[in-house]
Specification:
This protein folds into two domains: about 5-115 and about 305-345, 2-Layer Sandwich (ornithine cyclodeaminase, domain 1); about 125-300, Rossmann fold (3-Layer(aba) Sandwich), CATH 3.40.50.720. The chain is built from eleven helices and 17 strands. It has helices spanning about 15-25, 25-40, 115-130, 150-160, 170-180, 195-200, 245-250, 255-265, 280-285, 305-315, 340-345; strands at about 10-15, 55, 60-70, 75-80, 95-100, 105-110, 140-145, 165-170, 190, 205, 215-220, 230, 240, 250-255, 275, 295-300, 325-330. The termini are close together.
Length: about 350
């Protein structure tokens, strides 16, 4: 049997590879790198072919495809969200992604994205806060201490300079896990026994819960003037975390309105409620925070351009490293019109 040519091989980054790459580059460095990559792509937002993600909902969760493309590359992510998985010893979110060359249609990278999604989500949160949070913010409340929480805390330290985090989860074991994992992070960590206690003294409030329901993680009376809210748990129809009254008091910033109005906190509002697209703040055509008393809200549901940025970053980062395996994924006949002949010769 003939060996595949080099042009028929596609780099594959496994979970083990991704973890090795993170340790090779450094966690805080890779979070800053991803934030820079996303910001660079957001500043050229209008160059992208964009669409809301394609979602298949069931009673127990959702499976989604998230595509985006520019003139050179096409990328997509497959991702699920199944809150009940935790009780079965499974991940709530798993993902993989692919990057392709637009000119040929050939894939150039296949990678796990469970770990990478956690990294890019945290980088995106901190990037938004860099543009929207009060200047000099030092303390964040992390409400919801599941799989994403440590990544969020470390990203805010690396990108926004946060020094203190206050943790709360309705499951005290999750809070203990998060606190334990952050012991060597350089952050001052305070476990709390209520959401109210967690937000005390915090300038940034991050909500990251998994239950698919209209929840009230933050009620209106819990949110004072001048804070920045990073709402990342509400990410599909029928799933929210904030009391609607908070939204009416906030300046709301979103990734892609056609998607966020269906999936984000603003699904609770009228379809014409004003929001600001975050890419416009990054490119300087719209303003972010304008006063010390302003409540800013990043209503984040995750958007495909962020995954596109992460895929391109990983594609570059693995070059010259051992953190990938070449896969024989592409048929490569001597004559591109003779695929059948290639099959016959394989005898």
């Amino acid at each position: 049997m003939t060996q595949p040519s080099e042009k028929a091989l596609v780099p594959f980054v496994s979970v083990d590879h991704m973890m090795g790459l993170v340790h090779h580059i450094g966690l805080e460095t890779i979070l800053r790198d991803l934030a820079d990559e996303i910001e660079s792509d957001f500043k050229r937002w209008e160059e992208f072919d964009k669409t809301p993600r394609v979602a298949s909902h069931s009673e127990v969760g959702v499976i989604e495809l998230m595509p985006a493309a520019d003139r050179e590359n096409y990328g997509f992510k497959y991702v699920n969200g199944h809150p009940k998985n935790t009780s079965e010893g499974l991940q709530t979110v798993t993902a993989f992604g692919l990057l392709a060359d637009v000119a040929t249609g050939y894939p150039v990278l296949l990678t796990e994205m469970t770990m990478l999604t956690a990294l890019r989500t945290a980088a995106m949160s901190a990037l938004a806060a860099k543009h929207l949070a009060p200047k000099g913010a030092t303390t964040m409340a992390m409400i919801g201490n599941g799989a994403q929480s440590e990544f969020q805390c470390i990203a805010f330290k690396a990108i926004c300079g946060i020094t203190d985090v206050r943790l709360y989860d309705k499951d005290s074991n999750a809070t203990a896990k998060c606190a334990r994992n952050l012991v060597k992070s350089g952050l001052n960590v305070t476990p709390c026994t209520s959401a109210e206690a967690a937000i005390e003294g915090a300038q940034i409030l991050t909500t990251c819960t998994a239950d698919k329901q209209y929840a009230t993680i933050l009620s209106d009376n819990m949110v004072g003037p001048g804070v920045h809210i990073n709402a990342i748990g509400g990410d599909c129809p029928g799933k929210t975390e904030l009391a609607a009254a908070i939204l009416h008091r906030s300046s709301i910033f979103v990734e892609y309105p056609p998607q966020t109005r269906i999936e984000g906190e603003i699904q609770q509002l009228d379809a014409d409620h004003p929001v600001t697209e975050l890419w416009k703040v990054m490119s300087g055509t719209e303003t972010g925070r304008t006063s010390a008393d302003q409540i800013t809200l990043f209503d984040s549901v995750g958007f495909a351009i962020e995954d596109f940025s992460a895929l391109r970053y990983v594609h570059r980062a693995i070059a010259g490293t051992p953190y990938y395996t070449n896969l024989d994924m592409l048929a490569d006949p001597d004559d591109p019109r003779d695929l059948f002949g290639m099959l016959q010769r394989a005898k």
